[in-house]
Amino acid sequence: MSHANTDVETLNSFLRGELSAVETYRQAIGHVSTDRLRDPLQDCLRDHEQRVAAIRERITKLGGQPSEGSGVWGAFAKIVQAGADVLGEQSAIQALEQGEDHGLADYQRDMDKTHGEARRFVRMELLPAQKRTHDRMSKLKKTLH
């Protein structure tokens, strides 16, 4: 498999994770009752939406076809979020933070599967952005205790 194919495959994996995050944040925002929670969730949603756009653009530049859906992770995220919806806002925030943990681990684990410019893109753009949303959710979770 060529580097471009490997890069497209890895970036599509990241894209599916980001699409899952977007779906989950949209669902969670619909279930929170205060701006104190809604505002940081909307900030995280925007960050994930920007990553979706950037990853799609990068995949297209590499000659690949961006994934359309979130796949298995989207289904998993919906199940987790549905359970959190029943249990309340604190559980929803905890589920979102767990999703951010998972996303961060994915970037850290799979970054080295990319090459050249794609690796730079992951290391310099995607990973720092994921760390920011992860930190935001960790702080928000701590304020709820």
Radius of gyration: 15 Å
Largest sheet: none
How many individual β-strands? Answer: 0
The fourth-level CATH homologous superfamily is: Ferritin, core subunit, four-helix bundle
List the secondary-structure elements in sequence, H or E: HHHHH
Could you tell me the CATH topology label. Answer: Ferritin
Can you give the helix content as a percent range? over 70%
Which regions have little confidence, pLDDT < 50, spanning 5+ residues? none
Number of structural domains: 1
| Multimerization status | single chain
Distance between the termini: 48 Å
CATH class: Mainly Alpha
| Arithmetic mean of pLDDT | 88
Shape: elongated
Number of helices: 5
Structural class: mainly alpha
Query: What fraction of residues sit in β-strands?
Result: under 5%
Corresponding CATH architecture: Up-down Bundle
Give structural notes.
The protein is an all-alpha fold and 145 residues long. The chain has a single domain (3-143), classed as Ferritin (Up-down Bundle), CATH 1.20.1260. The protein has five helices and no strands. Helix 1 runs parallel beside helix 3 (71-87), helix 1 (3-29) runs antiparallel to helix 4 (89-110) and helix 2 (35-61) runs antiparallel to helix 5. The longest helix is centred in the last third of the chain and has 28 residues, at 116-143. The N and C termini lie far apart (48 Å). The mean pLDDT is 88.
